[in-house]
Amino acid sequence: MTIYALSTGPGVSGVAIIRISGPDTSKVIKLLTNKDVPRPREATLRKINNIETSELIDEGIVLWFPGPESYTGEDMAEIQVHGSKAVIEAIHKNISNIENCRFAEPGEFTKLAFQNGKINLLKAESVADLISSETEIQRKQAVKIMSGRSADKFNSLREKLLQILSHVEAKIDFPDEDLPKDILNKIKKDTDEVLKDIEKIMNDQKAGERIREGFKIAILGPTNAGKSSLINLLSNRDVAIVSEIAGTTRDVIETHLNIDGYPVIVSDTAGIRESVDEIEKKGIKLSLNRAEEADLKLVVVDAKNTYFTDTLKDLLDDNAILVLNKSDLLEKDIDPEINRINHVLISIKNNLNIDKLIQKIKNTLKNKFITSDDILITRERHRQHLEQCVSHLKRFNQKKQVEDFDIAAEDLRLAARQLGMIVGKVDVEEILGSIFNDFCIGK
Length: 443
Prior knowledge:
Blueprint lengths: L1 E5 L6 E9 L3 H9 L10 E6 L6 E10 L10 E8 L1 H12 L4 E3 L4 H8 L5 H12 L3 H11 L2 H25 L7 H22 L4 H7 L1 E6 L6 H9 L17 E7 L2 E7 L9 H16 L2 E7 L7 H6 L4 E6 L17 E3 L8 H15 L11 H18 L7 H19 L6 H9 L5
Helix pairs in contact: 4-5, 6-7, 6-14, 6-15, 7-13, 13-14
């Protein structure tokens, strides 16, 4: 089938790009323009006509990319026309009437690029991340993954495992042949090196996922402490309803922010207190669940009432900032015990010390986000595959006897497979080539 879709954003714009890919792409261009396809990769001005009536739809630029030298690896074209809803719909309708042409599914052009070997799975994912990036740090991370550094690293580790597996396979296939002792030592040494490399990659504080998904901040505390006012202040807009009636917030309210280039998801939660109201109790349960998931907790309390229930005490850990609000109503010094806790004394009403609170949040973000070249994991999928790989390698290392080589080989195959699944490259036949290259088996 030949697929087509609008590649630019929906809505009125100066230019809209319609992308076409598949075996009948040249046929589509010929029918729409009443001319042959233009020269490859050369922008050509063409009239775009109604296929049945030859009525002019628009005039625009046509770009022709014959396969396999195209983004998808198939014959492909782009039509650049004016970004009018009527123009786009007219062109789409005409293409849909051509045999073997259908509207593309979400991400299908990039999926074709992966299936046709133009890009690996990591690059396909990074394309999606780049498109959805909202902050500079997200853009930089997506571009870095697109450059292929992560794929090169995972492929390199996988090649090492295949190399080790080739030695193990050789012993299985030729049990009467004695492998040199240095080969057996090398198997152990190389396996340990791969295992250490992967464990080092995984010890990244989940910075890559945080950059991609957003740093999670949960605003927690008792009712009427000023939690909703704080999220509105941080967002510079009315995200949550503010009321003097206790228990106004029942559900979790989220807003996405850009703080100094860092992507942040701030959640306002239901006030934590003893309640008999079933709906409010469910809201409090959601609040505590959100606290467990958060990278940083802002525990907001009334500065005049610093009595902490056991639940609030449990929230004040190393990943929490105690926010003492309504300092304008404070008539005496705060409890000295509070000074032992990471805290900020503020007044949302009088806009007092808000800058100090924001600076504390920024400092936390800078410490949590690692912006070095060590970031290789950007999705939970990658981490799960690496965890499985480590598990198989540890099982392999537990095999001490030569008689266990059959089982050990399977552990290595599974470990290599998990690495291959990260980049979308799984082919056990590669082991055969490695065996023949390293051993003179026919001798």
